[in-house]
Amino acid sequence: MSLTKPFTGGYHESSQIKCLVVTVIISIIIITLALNNNLNIISIILLNLINIFSIYHQAPIINDNMPLTRNDLIIRNKILALLSSSILFLISLILYNKGIYSSIITWTLFINSCLMFNKKHKV
């Protein structure tokens, strides 16, 4: 997540302790998914394409806790998010027959794209 999350934006906690707790929980979920779901090559491709599509249309998410105001930074972050996700997608395809590494990469990218849609609306 550290290779894509800084560029996609989205969910941010208000303190470092909360962020650490959420990161540990998400990591446990990713490992559990990777160990208990044998993704075939079609599933890996589809999940990664959903991820790239989501990043293309949504990233970077502007968040009050981590604001981006300059248009050049917004464009730069979108490009870096797409590039890093695409490279990790290719790595997950290369590692398909090498154990659970491909699944870990795929689930990490997918959950990262889901976190982009966790925007709280002010009432």
UniProtKB/TrEMBL annotation:
GO biological process entries: proteolysis; quorum sensing
GO molecular function per UniProt: peptidase activity
GO cellular component, one term: membrane
Pfam (any one): AgrB
Residue intervals passing through the bilayer: 17-35, 79-95, 101-118
Entry-linked InterPro entries: AgrB (IPR006741)
Keyword Transmembrane attached: yes
Enzyme class per UniProt: hydrolase
Source organism: bioreactor metagenome
Keywords: Cell membrane, Hydrolase, Membrane, Protease, Transmembrane, Transmembrane helix
Protein name: Accessory gene regulator protein B
EC number: 3.4.-.-
Coiled coil: none
Keyword Protease: yes
